[in-house]
Amino acid sequence: MIAALTFAFACAVAAPQQPTPAPQPRRSRSQLVLTGGTIWTGTGEPWPERQALGARGERIEPCDPRSPGALVVDLPEGAFVMPGLIDAHGHLLGLGGSLAEVDLVGTTSYQEVVARAKAKAATLPKGSWVIGRGWDQNDWPEKVMPHHQALTQAVPDHPVWLTRIDGHAGLANALALQAAGVRRGSVAPSGGEILFDVRGEPTGVLVDAAMAAVPQPGLTDAQIRTRLLAAQAACFAHGLTCVHDMGVSRRVLDAMVQLHREGRWLLRTYVLLSSSERERIRRGPWQTPDGLIVVRGVKAYADGALGSRGAALLEPYADRPNTRGLVSMPKGAILLLAQMCADHGMQLCTHAIGDAANKTVLDAYAAVQCDGGLAGRRFRIEHAQVVAADDFARFAELGVLPSMQPTHLTSDMPWAPERLGPERTLRAYAWRRFHALDVVVPFGSDFPVESVDPLKGIYAAVTTKALGADRELRPDQKLTRVQALRGFTQAGAYAMFSERRLGTIELRKYADFTVFDRDLRTCSDAEILAARVLLTVVGGRIVYDGRRGG
Questions:
Q1: Structural domain of 333
Q2: pTM for the whole structure
Q3: Of 131, 317, 346, 481, which residue is the least packed, with the fewest Cβ within 10 Å?
């Protein structure tokens, strides 16, 4: 209750330094009425029989389909109406960038990566940068990090920078290495790694903090706006009504607010600022007058990723005994940031994948001094992928939310057990173990690291199977359909302090709905992935209509 009142007060007062967007254009119809289909409210209580689901303006209200001016949508037989899907961990600019740059997702060999980069370079002026993302050496016949030699030979006249799928490593060709100042004998910064070959020459692979040396060309304001709009369209097409946007810079936030002013930003967005945006963090929470964009969180990093062996582990990697991963922020730095967030009413969400990183973040959070205790601040750990046995209960004791991404399990399945060994694997991807402790577990995707499609996350959570395969990893962590759906609805709303506004279908809540062509609670596992989005509705407005192709 205290947390909810604090949020309401903080959001009622907009920081004067922030631009105030104009209201969105008046809708041509004030009422939306959905008739037919099955309505899942998410509350445990059914929607009243013979009562259509209606929205008056942006709120759920009783509506009469016969009312003048009402937009009545008769849903087809079998349609399934549910609370709007929330992705609690995504990167909107990154998603838009993945649609504009070299797409390396799904490449099955290093040769294919090189070929795609070469094809892109052929379309660009000589000397311009070739940027791409999505390669994963674990998907190749030889599951080793690449060497830039083949890339340099294929693309000698362009600097090339290709980011690994997890965003925690990248491959540079010779020109990009030269631009970054990386050569024989270069020393990686703290929290980073430069890979060298047997001759002592850089392979072109830079990990975590070392990636910052690559001077990628900056985006123009117009490019930022274009990418945000492309990401918004992709979210709507997959049924997402709300996204927790991670690590947002001032420029990206300003672009989003400008799009909102123009009536072009329609995606409900919970903004988590980059930890480097200290001035804006100190301003405290802020939202647009209509509550569509809420700025209340901060994103930080405690370690790297498991796929590039940057996740910080308590014991060495099983498949590389000479390393325990990389530390992005030590406990002291996390505590300073956490205290700043607590002092200014901001929610800190810290990336931690390895068990050492999770322990460090929990230790830092536990030392924060704040009125009313830490639980009311709903601090989060993003990913919480590998957790020490004695730390699961600490999440519950401190009121820390493990924000998890079920598709990380299915993507990591082919190689994670080799990285972790059998004992640690039993402490990984443990969302059901958190459920048993009554800990709220918001679900997301981490797009563009994983697919933006929430159906893949739901499928992973209830089957623990890789897509199109029978193999399971952590089958003891399978959730029920309803538990998985709540991870993408109620839990996401709670994680952004909006459980009174979002997450279930109830009168006076925001009219955010996702409509599928089949009931996700009862269809077969395979049918989950085949489900089609019929409608995406945000604040009573249809933002995607899949009945006629979007």
A1: 87-91+222-544
A2: 0.87
A3: 481
